[in-house]
Amino acid sequence: MQVWQSPHGRPLPVPGARTLLMGVLNVTPDSFSDGGQLSSLHALVDRAGAMLAAGANLLDLGGESTRPGALTISAAEECDRVLPAIAALRRAWPAVPLSIDTYKAEVAEAALAAGADLINDVWGFTHGLDAAQRTAWRAYAESSARRATSPALSSAAPAPSPLTPPPLSPMAEVAARLRAPAILMHNRPDRAYDDFWADLLLDLRTSLALARAAGVPDRQLWLDPGFGFAKDVAQNLAVLRDLHRIVALGFPVLVGTSRKSTLGAVLGTRVDDRVEAGGATVVWAIQQGAAMVRVHDVHEMARFARMADAIKSGLGFTPV
């Protein structure tokens, strides 16, 4: 089986028998749950070390908060935050897989040059497209999907003319040029869904179409349902409940529910009191086919994931 590959040649964790754990490292002053906690490179390296010791398979570094209402910062300011952090993490752990959590092509390019291995894009390669371009890409993705599922043509019938994709987004071009793997998260500018599941799946197919048109191989791509992005509480719960519908698209799936407001809405708890809720979502996501979970509390979530993996193994379980 072909698997994703770092442009630097570092091995990336292979999805499969065990659920992978992505540890969250935010070098931001205003992230919703841990803003300002990693205010020095020493604190960052210590937190990363604790996550790796607890079982994290890779680390996800973010320099701009994506919580609702957060201030947007420039690409230059974001680079000022993440590039020294990447250098510090690389000095401490040269071989640890490192993801850059950004939707800005300039930041992704600089982070990859500094040693990051993959892009975690909360806009699924659609940032930088205006409304008309977004509509054109959705139409292109829809047409491509229709062709892929249409009955085979007879040998006598002329082959359909190839579809011409709209202009690429900056992030799709960077990922293709630098041969970087990418996690494409579901997101959209609004919650104006005509049909929630049909629109969500088409949005994801649009991100995939962008990546493929740019020349990013399928083996380099993951999907993320975007829990907490452009969705209300019920919609967040729905994407988790029926996550298998996204898994069925044929790409490994990452799920990030850690500490998010939907968990607090269900249990009525503060952001620092959602570990059990997060554990429940991790177990459910794994049962639905998630290959990796993005978490803040690696030690606790590693136990939930290990137990869920064991249950999935059933008669095939072998104690360590």
TrEMBL record:
GO terms for cellular component: cytosol. Pathway: Cofactor biosynthesis; tetrahydrofolate biosynthesis; 7,8-dihydrofolate from 2-amino-4-hydroxy-6-hydroxymethyl-7,8-dihydropteridine diphosphate and 4-aminobenzoate: step 1/2. The keyword Metal-binding applies. One of its GO terms (molecular function) is dihydropteroate synthase activity. Its EC number is 2.5.1.15. Residues 19-306 form the Pterin-binding domain. It catalyses: (7,8-dihydropterin-6-yl)methyl diphosphate + 4-aminobenzoate = 7,8-dihydropteroate + diphosphate. InterPro entries: DHP_synth-like, DHP_synth_dom, Dihydropteroate_synth-like_sf, Pterin-binding_dom. Pfam families: Pterin_bind (PF00809). This is dihydropteroate synthase.
